[in-house]
Design goal:
With 363 residues, the chain is an alpha/beta fold. It folds into two domains: 218 residues, Rossmann fold; 95 residues, Rossmann fold, CATH 3.40.50. The protein is 45% helix and 15% strand. The chain contains 13 helices and ten strands. The chain has a six-stranded mixed β-sheet, sandwiched between helices. Helix 8 links the parallel strand 7 and strand 8. The N and C termini lie far apart (74 Å).
Amino acid sequence: MTAIDRCHAKTREWVCEAVRIIEADANRSADTHLLPFPLPPEWNVRLYLKDESTHPTGSLKHRLARSLFLYALCNGWIVEGTPVIEASSGSTAVSEAYFARLLGLPFIAVMPRTTSAGKVELIERQGGRCHFVDEPSQLYVESHRLAAELGGHFMDQFTHAERATDWRGNNNIAESIFEQMALEPHPEPEWIVVGAGTGGTSATIGRYIRYQRQRTRLAVVDPEHSVFFDAWRDSQPELTSCQGSRIEGIGRPRVEPSFVGQVIDRMIKVPDAASLATIRAVEPVLGRRVGGSTGTNLWGAFQIVAELRAADRAGSVVTLLCDGGDRYANTYYDDGWIAAQGLDLAPDKETVERFLSTGEWPA
């Protein structure tokens, strides 16, 4: 056997072991809970939260990171010692740092300098390193540069999210939702409501709904300064923005390759003040804090629940609890930070509280 053959055999052995390690980690992990949101039973509309905060790394992005690593390993892009680089505002990087540590690989997160200190700490706790950029538009360029300089692999979640996950099943989030809904009063949801960061989650759910021949419709909520909503509404995928999203994990200044608008039935634009007012309004209801992207999801879900009620239609709505609020103690739950952003949460908080007591939504 030549030296090249031996090297190839060793590489394949390492990759096989890496895949086993990731699959074993998944095998040790239970599925996430589907929690009923406490709405009055006489409304005849049920709302459920898929609680993705219970993953080992605390967010929805754990699923994505696992899929991206398996995809890269099986494509031959990652081998023993490969530095892994990702452009991420936080949660994806936290999860990818976790999997990189499992495999003994160096990990670098390229992220906006404005990313919350809590997420930076979580990445570093997992053994990752944070590399900051001042302009969100430089995330991709800098990630490619680092990968070339270090001989590493740029994971590129924004390109590969929609293809790394098996949308037909294999315990993806859509399959999990429908299995957990099976014994509920309205097992086939009228709507599933999600946000879009990479677009991978909405693509997976939208495809799965069609593949399973469900009547469920998919709504995607989009925060301020993100171009997804306008690009989808106006069929202009080339749209860009020079601003990043304040709601970490969702919203993008460009339409990412993983965003598949054709599987989306409806989009709802959500002001940042509304997202943050919502998480504060629901904290006493849930008995816990949730992140800003969950607030965006709930603002859209509440609006849809109110519309179903107004139409006298019974049914169910499902959305995602993307991560916990402890990561945002110094931002979304800090009154000083809110004031510095020039946001007034009071009117939108009143809208949510009125909905929770009456089931009505402003026209």
